[in-house]
Amino acid sequence: MKKGDHLFLVDGSGFIFRAFHALPPLTRKSDGLPVGAVSGFCNMLWKLLTDARDTSVGVTPSHFAVIFDYASKTFRKDIYDAYKANRSAPPEELVPQFGLIRQATRAFNLPCIETEGFEADDIIATYARKAEAAGADVTIISSDKDLMQLVTSNVHMYDSMKDKQIGVAEVIEKWGVGPEKMIDLQAMVGDTVDNVPGIPGIGPKTAAQLLEEFGDLDTLLERAGEIKQVKRRENIVAHAEQARLSRRLVELRTDVPLGLDLEALVLEPQDGPKLVAFLKAMEFGTLTRRVAAACACDAEAIEPAVITVESGATARGPDLDPEQAGSSSVAAPAAPRTARSQQTGTELGKDMRPADLAKTRAEAFATAKIDRSCYVTIREIEELDDWIRGALDTGILAVEAEGNSIDPMQGELAGISLALLDNTHAPSGGEIRSAYIPLDHKTGEGDLLGGGRADNQLTIREALDRLKPLLENPSVLKLGHNLKFAYLLLKRYGITLQSYDDVMLMSYVLEAGKGGQGLDSLSERWLGHVPMTWKDVAGSGKSGLSFDKVDIERAMAYAAEKVDLTMRIWLVLKPRLASEKLTTVYERLERPMVATLAEMEERGITIDRQILSRLSGELAQKAAAVEDEIFQLAGEKFTIGSPKQLGDILFGKMGLSGGAKTKTGQWSTSAQVLEELAAVHELPRKIVDWRQLTKLKSTYTDALPGYVHPQTKRVHTSYSLASTTTGRLSSVEPNLQNIPIRTTEGRKIRAAFISTPGHKLVSADYSQIELRVLAHVADIPQLRQAFAEGIDIHSMTASEMFGVPVEGMPADIRRRAKAINFGIIYGISAFGLANQLSIERSEAGEYIKRYFERFPGIRDYMENTKSFVREHGYVETIFGRRAHYPEIRSSNPSVRAFNERAAINAPIQGSAADIIRRAMARMESALAQAGLEEKARMLLQVHDELIFEVEDAEIERTLPVVVTTMEQAAMPAIAMKVPLKVDARAAVNWDEAH
Questions:
Q1: What are the start and end residues of every segment in region (Disordered) (predicted)?
Q2: Minimal CA–CA distance to 345: which of 571, 503, 600, 531?
């Protein structure tokens, strides 16, 4: 840390109590968990970060940390046992929120700091003095008077609730003394809240007067006989030692041993997906949307995070003494449960209608205890054979493969867990028993790479030789959650899973948009049970273990519970698919994706590192050139990434109009502001260009080579199922679906994806599929006719709206029609269209009005959709997929409007997603029927596009198979009113093929 840096230190414990007491109680809707303090804390922290990155209190922090009290027992208790003794325990509903708030801090990508034996104020004091000594400035985010002793010309405080800075002058104004005398003043006054005794009869004003007269506490105590007021003099003399004791209590330590040095506190950007995942888990809808918008991520595509709810000894918080707290590490539901489900098949709903069956099972399992003591570890081959016979007898088996990595392409198999229905009951219900088969757990001792193999385990080979016939037996139904992982991991060991159900996908079909689809979420929702978490078992951070290094018995409890829960959830959800007439959606659109995507992920795609390396250099040069242009336009050099400096240049120095100020009076330079300015001013346009170039470099050209698999030498993305409300797939590690296609740089990045020698890449892309779906669902005659006749749809729209002949259509008129065509699908406003076309808002509004006049069926579709979603809470694609919008009746107009726009778009985007899913599910068999299964392989799906790698000699045979399969994907379920069209071509790289 150096001069010019600025450290923000947030008093996290103070934030907790301010959030808790300032806001009304709030509970999580799904389970009633108190989350009011967490919500307040997250909103306060988000606002602080948003303002700070922009202008904050006049500065932009370079370093940032949130500081918490470890617990109430600190060194001050050793000095004075009665210190804080009069404080009552925290409210019961606040206790589980302490741990959640710490998790929230980490989700914000911020250092979360606490030190046993010290208070947060001591840690703040230590960091503040170290930073000040290094020449940096410090802002302490707190209003706590105890911290005012730290204020100097370089150390300030900021009360975020009152939007008020506290410097030397403010301390003097409040207390009558400067910060350097605050320790003595507090020692004299005492503190009833912290039980600091002080001197009886001495209040703040009197203390300030005495310090003004005598200079400091020591001098005052030495010359106490000079005090004229008898009572005051007697009190000071009698309680001199008490005053000295109080000074030791209120004086903050500046020598706390720090786990993180100052350089570790550098403020990093928020990890949008990570933060959104946490907020979704907490069910903070409004803040989730706000963060997702600011971080430019698709909240619907992000799975809620796995959250640990702590209580008792693990729920550290101010004034919660771990020695007096309970021992439970996870907040368990209040409802008691019995040892294991003892209901017979009839009691679980056998021979009932599907709706009644689902209800009966849900009620039964909601009161059935999950007892981990009933789980077993399979260590002998004879015992495994018994379980295999049980699966063959009942015809149903829940299975999970546990690896030593979250990447099934690189991880190794550590064990397999199984769950069975009791052999005496039919698959409609019965007792569930679960087991874990450890296969390659390590002892933690031995070699430096993880220790020797633990004793008393079956070998991977002998176990898989027994399990392979069962797992590939189509007459035995295998159950799992997120089965794609197990499918891919087992396939690497020569096992191809056959005949399966995935409860994650079943729940997704039933309740997309209502909540998370993680196993923990489903367990809490349907079974009322909070399961063990990965952190409970393997830890986290630097001390976290891979699963193969977890103690076998602990691993068994975790892994066996997962398949136990999977079996129970399947029993509840399976009849719901039938009762709600969604079985076809699950079986035709979701279940086939498990194998299809796993095969694609295993194949991967080749990249040319040299192209990316050269492109990375080009992007760096372009960014530097644009940077120079920015400096020339600005007339000076400045930090382009600094919102404050950028705001000063754009609105202060250059006086550009259209800027907005924050509450602190500083200029806002959000992405939206810059985009609006870029439409009319060159400098902000260059800044937008610079940001795009640097993002492409860091996200793709620099990062992609790191994803090359060490053995296959290819990049293997991972597709996320059940991650969006509409059914669209997303890809991660790396994300290959967000590479821009309309920019030169984006196309160059795609050019780095290449075919192997003797092959070509084939790109097959649906042409304007969402507009075609819109023409179908809204039944627009003009659009239907244009698509049927192969007329350019944007020229036709321009002709309809502006009365211009299609032949010789001016490019700018067509561009306007294109912007409206695509904008209407996403509910574009006049404001948004005006920005996109660089026209006045009134003109844009007139365009939209004219559009609806020319195509009244679109307006009717929108209004009908809004009415439907308000009544039912969901909308449907043309194939029956449901997208739920629980907040459609929100009293908040902006929330309601957002849900209405999403609901209008969902049937269109979702139907397009369903069509390409249907095509993917049929593609392998279509290629096989043409004798191309070994010569043409589907590698990637990117929204409306499929990418294949095909042998050179088979290109001509492959293209018609691919095109026909895609164009006929909706049949026979739906006879589209407009034809689907696919453009397909082959080339040596992705860019040329597209």
A1: 313-349
A2: 571
Q: Where are the beta strands (DSSP E) in 247-371?
A: none
730, 723 contact by CB (below 8 A):
yes
**Burial (0-12, 13-18, 19+ Cβ within 10 Å), 55:** buried
Q: Please state, as a whole number, how many other Cβ atoms lie within 10 Å of the Cβ of residue 498.
A: 15
514 and 629 both lie in a single domain: no
For residue range 181-199, list pLDDT tens digits in order.
999 999 999 887 788 899 9
Write out the residue range of the structural domain in which residue 661 sits: 606-713
Residue 980: predicted pLDDT = 95
Asked whether the beta carbons of 822 and 851 are under 8 A apart, the reply is no
Torsion of CA 81, 87, 93, 98, to 10 degrees: -50
Beta bridge partners of 478: 397, 500
Tell me the pLDDT band of 664, cut-offs 50, 70 and 90.
low
Structural domain contains residue 220: no
- Considering only CA atoms, which of 568, 93, 528 is closest in space to residue 336? 528
- CA distances from residue 463 to 403, 433, 442, 458, 495 in whole angstroms, order as listed: 15, 19, 17, 6, 12
Radius of gyration of the chain (CA): 32
Give the 3-state secondary structure of residue 756: coil
Report the amino acid identity of residue 71: A
Q: Decide: helix, strand or coil at residue 165.
A: strand
What string of DSSP letters covers 45-81? HHHHHHHHHHTTTT---SEEEEE----S--HHHHH-T
User: Pick from 235, 265, 295: which residue ends a domain?
Assistant: 265
With a CB cutoff of 8 Å and minimum separation 6, the contacts of 895 are 285, 286, 887
Give the C-alpha separation, 66 to 531, whole Å: 29
Kindly state the tokens that stand for 531: 């399961």
Claim to verify: residue 825 and residue 897 sit in the same structural domain: yes
Asked whether the whole model's pTM tops 0.85, one would answer no
DSSP, collapsed to helix, strand or coil, labels residue 972 as coil
Report the C-alpha gap between 3 and 872 in whole angstroms.
60
Closest among 552, 546, 548 to 379, alpha carbons compared: 552
Cα gap 31→810, rounded to integer Å: 58
Q: Using CA atoms, how far apart are residues 714 and 716, in angstroms rounded to an integer?
A: 6
Distance CA 477, CA 435 (A): 18
Q: Are residues 638 and 783 in the same domain?
A: no
Query: Which tokens hold the place of 994?
Result: 């597209």
Q: Which of 16-20, 202-206, 946-950 has the lowest mean pLDDT?
A: 16-20
Give me the long-range contacts of 840-848 (CB less than 8 A, separation at least 24). Answer: 847/801, 847/816, 847/820, 848/820, 848/824
Write the single-letter amino acid at 405.
S
Residue 524 tokens read as: 């809490």
Q: Are residues 18 and 106 in the same domain?
A: yes
Report yes or no on 381 lying in a domain.
yes
CA distance 36 to 24: 7
The more confidently predicted of residues 669 and 172 is: 172
With b for 16 or more beta-carbon neighbours within 10 A and e for fewer, the 925-959 pattern comes to: ebbeebebeebbbbbbbbbbbbbbbbbeebbebbb
Sheet order of strands, 759-766 included: 936-942, 945-951, 759-766, 982-987
For 402, list phi and psi in degrees, rounded to 5: -105, 125
Same domain, 385 and 489: yes
- Number of structural domains, the chain? 4
**409-444 as b/e: b if 16+ CB within 10 A:** bebbbbbbbbbbbbeebbebbbbbbbbbbbbbbbee
Fill in the DSSP letter of residue 589: I
Tens-digit pLDDT profile for residues 407-452? 999 889 999 999 998 644 333 445 788 999 999 999 864 444 456 8
15-18: long-range pairs with CB below 8 Å, 24+: 15/41, 15/44, 15/45, 15/66, 15/141, 16/41, 16/68, 16/94, 16/97, 16/98, 16/101, 16/317, 16/318, 17/318, 18/44, 18/161
Tokens of 876: 């449907």
131-158 in b/e form (b: 16+ CB < 10 A) is: bbeeebbbbbbbbebbbbbbbbeebbbb
Contact at 8 Å (CB) between 668 and 660?
yes
